[in-house]
Amino acid sequence: MKSRLILSVLSIGFLIACNPEQKDHPTEKQPVGEFKLDRTVLPIHPPQTEAETEMDARNVQRPDIFNVEAPENAPNVVLVMIDDIGFGATSTFGGAINTPTFDRLADNGLKFNEFHTTALCSPTRASLLSGRNHHRMNVGSVMEVATGFQGNQGIRPDNAKYVAETLRQNGYSTAAFGKWHETATWEVSVSGPYFRWPTNSGFDKFYGFIGGETNQWDPVIFDGVTKVQKKDNADYHFTTDMTNEAIEWVKFQKAMTPEKPFMVYYAPGAVHAPHHAPKEWIEKYNGRFDEGWQKLREETFARQKEMGIIPENTKLAPMPSDIKDWESLSDNERKLFAIQMETFAGFMEHTDNEVGRLVDAIDEVGQLDNTLFIYVMGDNCLLYTSPSPRDS
Asked: Is the pTM value of this prediction over 0.85?
């Protein structure tokens, strides 16, 4: 059976955006069963009913319980956001890093090659999750460099809700796993406020780290708003841990409420620094990048043309003047940079494998054919690289 998966890199405004300008709800009194939901305004209020004057409960028929359910056959939504990776890095888009899960979804869905980001973590995520310009979200840059000026204060306004809130108020279960980076640094403490934490941003469940990066071997983890210790496991890695949590949540959610759709926002720390990858995944790329960055970009460029990702008449841009010619580097410099790229590649392939485990788990519970799967590669680009061994 052909899967109805869709691979996309578009932010989605699903069902109806939260409207800060609330219009009046119907005031006529009517039975709950005859009430027609108005999904154009959130929250959806229950209908007004006639007051009950009968004192003896035996003489009264119990009214229906008001409950907002998702539209019939509403799909599950999974949004994967990879961090700090370039357009031509993965095999799916002509790159050298093997991403079989990304390939699998792309082969059975849609690929987009004109995805525009804000080139930074926090604003891209704020835009993607809200469907709004990042300055309208008051997130003009990463949270750590917010200023006192409107548009870059790092304080998301209450009248600009995330799509998770829209879905939650329309009958979805919602959960976020991994990196958040959407809360101002001065709000990340026991004193709060918690208005802009994930569980007050439309997500029923959150398991991950609040800031922009964390140690993958020994992360700072929050479950909801509670700081928790990492699991006692000699082979512990955060990406595997967050995937296990996501899989467990999906299976439990479907076991408890099989008729209720879910949204999962899956945002690993990869491949943002620090590049902490299991050794066996790094070793898969031993020697792969010894010929240097110029050779790699030429090979990637040729593959992208062959795959139709870029037009046939595209010209390869000149190398930036501040990046040295590979052959001009010392042996130690070339060795260092090759190892760094092997580590980066291993980190990405390991992460793609974890995404694959989530895909398989959704398939296992019979939900893959009714899941809108959006795999974003990635939130900005490789911003924090440098040709200098000292700076790297």
From this structure: yes
